[in-house]
Each structure stands twice: as structure tokens, then as C-alpha cells.
Amino acid sequence: MDKAVTLAREIRASGAAVTLVVHEHKRLGRGIDLATLTEDLKASDVGLEFLTGELKGPHDPSGVVFTVLAALSGMEREYIRDRTLEGHESARKRGKTIGGAGVTDNDMLSMALHLRDQEK
After folding, report:
1. Which end of the chain has the lower number of beta carbons within 10 A, N or C?
2. What is the C-alpha separation between 28 and 15, in angstroms, rounded?
3. Distance (Å, rounded) from C-alpha 69 to C-alpha 61?
4. What is the DSSP string of 62-73?
5. Is residue 74 within 8 Å of residue 47, measured between CB atoms?
6. Cα-flanking dihedrals φ and ψ of residue 36, to 5°?
7. Cα(32)–Cα(67) distance, rounded to whole angstroms?
8. pLDDT by residue (tens digit) across 12-50?
9. Residue 1 per-residue DSSP state
10. 40-96 per-position pLDDT tens digit
């Protein structure tokens, strides 16, 4: 992303109009990171457009709606993180393992150790 922004600034400095097109605003960042990046783009006179999401379409990063939605996306990220951590803790308390299914069972482990010992 940093390379894309740098390139957009360089092209804009040469006099060409530039619009940075991003799939969704969450791909750029959330909360204050998003607001800071978009302010930098605006200062460089680089346009910004989102293909999907709440901010779909071209945007003026200094607009009130944009700023509020950027802040809300930052809060959403923290909420998701907190809920995920709570879910992991709850699962651990119930004796559940976190993550995918085990790759090996006892028979597979015994065979692997047997084969390893044969190579020595």
C-alpha cells in the first residue's frame, strides 16, 4: 500500500490527475490510521475511490461523513478483537482447543517417530 501511495504522489507531482482506487475502505486502514492516510492523499491532491462498502464511490477525505465512518470502522475493529479474545478465553475455560483440527492422531505420530528413528 505504501508503494501505491508513493507512486500515486509521484505521478500526481508530474501533473497527471490521479485517483487511488481501493476495494474497500478497511483495506486502507481503520480509525485514525485511515483518516491520517486520506488526509495525506488530499494534501498531495490524489483522489480516492472505494469500490465497495459503506464508503463506495469517490470521496473527499476531509468530509464529515468520511471522518465519522473512519472512526466507526476503528471502533468496529476493536469490538471484533475484544469479542474474539473473549470467545477464546471462554473456550479455554470449557477445555476446548483453539484452532483447526489436529493434523495427526496417536497412530500417525507413532509411525512418524518410528520412521524418524529408522533414518538415524
Report:
1. C
2. 24
3. 11
4. TSHHHHHHHHHH
5. no
6. -65, -45
7. 9
8. 999 999 998 888 867 666 666 777 777 788 888 888 888
9. -
10. 888 888 888 888 877 788 876 666 666 676 677 767 777 888 899 999 888 889 888
Nearest to 26 by CA among 34, 16, 35: 34
What is the C-alpha to C-alpha distance for residues 37 and 30, in angstroms, rounded to an integer? 10
Q: In a 3-state reduction of DSSP, which class is residue 57?
A: strand
What per-residue confidence (pLDDT) applies to 11? 93
pTM for the full predicted model: 0.52
CA dihedral 76, 77, 83, 84 (to 10 degrees): 150
Three-state DSSP at 30 gives coil
- The arrangement of strands across the sheet holding 57-59 comes to 19-22, 47-50, 57-59
Tell me if residue 95 falls in helix, strand or coil: coil
- Strand 47-50 relative to strand 57-59, pairing: antiparallel
CB atoms inside a 10 Å sphere around CB 48? 23
> In sequence order, what are the beta bridge partners of 50?
22, 57
